[in-house]
Design brief:
The complex is a heterodimer of chains A (315) and B (305).
Chain A: H1 2-28, H2 34-42, H3 47-56, H4 63-75, H5 89-93, H6 97-124, H7 129-143, H8 146-161, H9 174-208, H10 211-218, H11 223-260, H12 266-275, H13 279-307
Helix pairs in contact in A: 1-13, 6-7, 6-9, 6-11, 7-9, 8-9, 8-11, 9-11, 10-11, 11-12, 11-13, 12-13
Chain B: H1 14-20, H2 27-38, H3 40-57, H4 59-62, H5 94-130, H6 132-146, H7 150-161, H8 165-191, H9 195-202, H10 207-218, H11 220-243, H12 255-260, H13 263-269, H14 272-299
Classes of the chains: A mainly alpha (315), B mainly alpha (305).
């Protein structure tokens, strides 16, 4: 187990290092840096001024030197400065993280609360009308872009209440906050719930074919006991792994949903920073996302091993 | 069967059973009939996809208005007899833009899926067949590409390459590589130990030829299943990129971009600008998903649900 952990942690470090290199160089092959854009839009033509600003931002140095400066800074807790606001990148990014984290958590809770029961119903009543309806519904959920679902929800709100529930200011109390996040959380989580439902269904069907389920039935256990005590507990194991896939999946939904609902989280901030060519923000945010995805997947693998004694990480 | 078991099929007379399994379904008509009976949802998906592909191909014939033609008199016109889906802020006909938008969506979807599959196949095949350090490096590259969500990687790629049709295809293709590479690699690992590979080697065939002519074709079934699923993902990603303003540039009529033009505002004033493009995206992806599920059942029996 210890050697497995060391090996795994080293591979994670290699992956994150690779991402940092790729992102950094990718952002710098873009023709035209922030200084060019500033000068184009301001119509300023003084080349000496331009050179001075480029030096201040460290853009006059070679790209590998800039990369080392960035990584060296991260090691010391210095993420550099935003080109746009000129504030430290950490001060721009950190306050936005809890907003996105809350939204993601609510979306995840919603998707589990909806996906697992529907998946179980669909499996227990396999090939019934309800099963077909749920399967088609889940496929439809996977087919809708999250931003369109968000817009449709806004449309319903306009028709019913005449207002749009978009984020205007931080909520005053916990209840308001829950209300504020619940609508976008549904828009993000619906797609994930479809995924969870499909996985729960196929996992449940797999388990229901096992011998020990037959044994339980033969002993005269009620359908209720067989389905929930014997089957569901085992069927949920693979569903745990989906949380790892979800981490990557949810982030895509968060990016577009935060844009639709005007939520000031990190996901929308990434899009803004990409638009304004604010490299220090973009590279740090992408690294942050990569760390989250890699860490979640690692934790999921460990949880899976802890829950299923048949799985041993040797080597 | 005496034991009632959810999921078990009720025993039927053999003749019916055999007919259901496809016996006697000969020729094209029989084959299609069998597909429709066994996979009604897959058939529905095929029809949906067929409608969009035909619409994209025959766009010139089935639209009256130029999708780029602006007309200030028609600005935000609601759906009416002449413009069934209404007109956008610039007075462009929504129906025409959706029909021509199918070209963009399908071109980007199919283009990036093909590109992703070709590169994924090349990486997966060489990594699985050659093993050793090639495999080691390929695995790390795949790890790196997989640690970033599809949309994030596509966003950064699109920003780095600049907005254009070709660049959007590339930006979406690259995040699709890892899953194809993994599937082909794991299949190749199993296939290269099989006797027919040994036989090919024994008659003096070159390793490259064995890999491409004998191993690769045997990995195609799972790749076709995966590619169908990825086609839907690629179309959704294009829509998201264009929605965020980093995908297909103006003046191309992209479904995602049609929604981006301050869509949250039109929710109140002109809902037809929001409903139709989103419905087009969802329906197309729904079609690919239905087809993908049916193909998985047919081509990949291990995953049969």
């Amino acid at each position: 187990m210890a050697s497995y952990l060391t090996r795994r942690l080293m591979l994670m470090a290699v992956t994150l290092f690779g991402i940092s290199v790729i992102i950094f160089f990718l952002l710098r092959v873009v023709p035209g840096n922030i200084v060019d854009i500033l000068f184009d839009s301001a119509g300023m033509v003084n080349p000496a001024e331009k050179v001075k600003i480029e030096r201040e931002l460290g853009l006059d140095k070679s790209i590998p030197v800039q990369y080392l400066a960035w990584i060296g800074g991260i090691a010391q807790g210095d993420l550099g400065y935003s080109y746009v606001s000129e504030k430290p990148a950490i001060d721009e990014i950190a306050p936005r993280i809890p907003v996105t984290a809350k939204l993601a958590a609510m979306a995840l809770i919603f998707s589990i609360a909806l996906g697992i029961p529907l998946g179980v119903i669909s499996a227990v009543k396999q090939n019934s009308g309800a099963d077909y309806a749920l399967r088609v519904l889940s496929l439809a959920g996977l087919s809708m872009p999250a931003f369109w679902l968000g817009l449709l929800i806004l449309m319903v709100f306009v028709a019913r209440f005449g207002t749009i529930p978009i984020y205007t200011e931080p909520a005053k109390n916990l209840w308001d906050e829950l209300l504020l996040y619940s609508v976008p959380a549904i828009a993000v989580g619906f797609r994930s719930s479809a995924l969870i439902m499909r996985l729960t269904r196929s996992s449940m069907l797999e388990v229901l074919r096992q011998d020990y389920i037959r044994t339980a039935r033969a002993k005269g256990a009620s359908a209720q006991a067989v389905n929930y005590d014997h089957a569901l507990r085992n069927a949920l194991l693979p569903v745990v792994t989906i949380v790892g896939i979800e981490a990557a999946f949810l982030i895509g939904g968060l990016i577009v949903t935060e844009t639709v609902f005007n939520i000031p989280g990190v996901a929308r901030f990434l899009v803004e920073a990409i638009r304004t060519r604010d490299y220090p923000i973009v590279q740090n945010l992408v690294m942050f996302i990569a760390i989250v995805v890699v860490a979640v997947n690692f934790l999921v693998d460990l949880t899976y091993a802890a829950l299923d004694p048949r799985i041993k990480y040797a080597e | 069967m005496a034991i009632s078991e959810p999921g078990a099929e009720v025993a039927e007379p053999f003749a019916v059973e055999l007919k259901r399994a496809g016996l006697g379904a000969t020729g094209l008509r029989g084959g299609i009939g069998h597909f429709v009976r066994r996979h009604p949802l897959g058939a529905a998906g095929t029809i949906i996809m067929g409608v969009f592909v035909l619409g994209a191909l025959l766009a010139d014939l089935i639209t009256i208005y130029d999708p780029l033609q602006t007309d200030s008199a028609l600005s935000l016109a609601p759906p009416n007899a002449a413009h069934w889906m209404g007109a956008d802020f610039m007075g462009r006909d929504i129906y025409s833009r959706i029909v021509y938008g199918a070209r963009i969506s399908l071109a980007v979807g199919i283009g990036s899926t093909l590109l992703g599959c070709i590169f994924g196949a090349a990486i997966g095949l060489s990594s699985g067949y050659l093993g050793g350090w090639v495999d080691l490096i390929a695995q790390r590259v795949i790890d790196i590409l997989q640690a970033l969500p599809l949309l994030v990687l596509a966003l950064v790629m699109a920003a780095a390459l600049g907005p254009s049709l070709r660049n959007t295809i590339i930006a979406i293709a690259i995040p699709l590589i890892p899953s194809v590479a993994r599937v082909i690699r794991s299949n190749t690992l199993a296939l290269r130990e099989l006797p027919f590979v040994e036989a090919a080697r024994a008659i003096g065939m070159s390793e490259f030829r064995i890999a491409v002519r004998h191993v690769l074709p045997n990995t195609l079934a799972p790749v076709i299943v995966l590619a169908t699923a990825q086609l839907g993902a690629a179309i959704l990603t294009e829509a998201s990129l264009s929605f965020l303003g980093l995908g297909i540039p103006e003046p191309y009529p992209s479904w995602g971009r049609m929604l981006s033009e301050s869509a949250a505002e039109y929710v109140r004033t002109a809902p037809w600008l929001v409903i139709f493009p989103g419905a087009a995206i969802s329906l197309t992806v729904f079609g690919t998903n239905l087809l993908g599920d049916a193909l998985r059942d047919i081509l990949d029996p291990r995953q049969r649900s």
